[in-house]
Amino acid sequence: MNVIEQQSGDGWHVFRGDCCEVLQGLPDEYRTALELHRQGIPVESTNENVISISKAIGRTPKTTREYLKKAIAAVTEMTKECPQ
User: Fold this and answer.
1) Backbone region of residue 75 per phi and psi (left: phi > 0; alpha: psi in -120 to 50; beta: other values)
2) Whole-prediction pTM
3) CATH of domain 12-81
């Protein structure tokens, strides 16, 4: 499952429901990147008029993708024990 580039679908249930408090345990930049990604905001954009996650958090697209990867892994691990 490639959640980082996916807009919705399988795997997104992991970030919803009763276990959203797991997001509070993430560093601010990871949480912000993940929340913006969930809203469909792209990691990067060549159009200056389009907001991107990397612009919003002030990091490079490469760093932003790494934050998303780590955030998704952490949330996935933390929600394994949550009721579905």
Assistant:
1) alpha
2) 0.69
3) 1.10.10
